[in-house]
UniProtKB/TrEMBL annotation:
GO terms for cellular component: membrane. It comes from Marinobacter nauticus (Marinobacter hydrocarbonoclasticus). This is Protease modulator HflK. Belongs to the band 7/mec-2 family. HflK subfamily. Keywords: Hydrolase, Membrane, Protease, Transmembrane, Transmembrane helix.
Length: 200
């Protein structure tokens, strides 16, 4: 008997396993909510969270993946910082004295320069500008007259290395040297010489 003969149409004769136009297992299209939930669980595992239906092994794998992502981001940030700190610019008016572990390494000319971060220290010195140091005080002349002398010294740095390394405080050292030289000069001159010939 054919499956579609009158009176003989039974569910077990349906070649597609359906009865009365309905599917035997009542299977519909994929559930959108279930697919969305699975996608969210997978995303949570990638970010280090725990998925809703994940077991212990899956949670551990997700946590490890999230930790690896954090390490990768940290490594990128550190690399960017190191690269940023490795380059510096020396202006036309400057010279850069580079110290490596506190010892003199080199003097750099103007331009874009490279240094080793945390190892090299760069000291920039202006070598074209004119600096001024002033000194003033009361001093005795050779004929024992008390005079007040004001002195102004103008200078330019000729050796950046010596300026950085030879003295701790160059301005203070210059002030002491100027005051000492001035007292010696005034003390060996008479009042007339200080007021006339020795006056600049």
């Amino acid at each position: 008997m054919a499956w579609n003969e009158p009176g003989g149409n039974r569910n077990d004769n349906d070649p597609w396993g359906t009865g009365g136009g309905r599917r035997g297992n009542d299977q519909g299209p994929p559930d959108l909510d279930e697919a969305l939930k699975k996608g969210l669980d997978k995303l949570n595992r990638m970010l280090g969270g725990k998925g809703g239906n994940s077991g212990g092994g899956s949670s551990s794998g997700g946590s490890a993946g999230g930790f690896g992502a954090i390490l990768a981001i940290a490594a990128i940030l550190v690399a960017g910082y190191v690269i940023y700190q490795s380059f510096y610019t020396v202006d036309e008016q400057e010279r850069a004295v580079v110290l490596r572990f506190g010892e003199y390494n080199r003097t750099e000319e103007p331009g874009l320069r490279f240094k080793v971060p945390l190892i090299d220290t760069v000291n920039k010195v202006r070598v074209t500008s004119i600096r001024t140091a002033e000194s003033s005080g009361q001093m005795l002349t050779q004929d024992e007259n008390l005079v007040t002398v004001d002195l102004q010294v103008q200078y330019r740095v000729g050796d950046a290395r010596a300026y950085v390394l030879n003295v701790r405080d160059s301005n203070q050292a210059l002030a002491f040297a100027t005051d000492s030289a001035l007292r010696h000069e005034v003390g060996s001159s008479s009042l007339d010489d200080v007021l006339t010939e020795g006056r600049a």
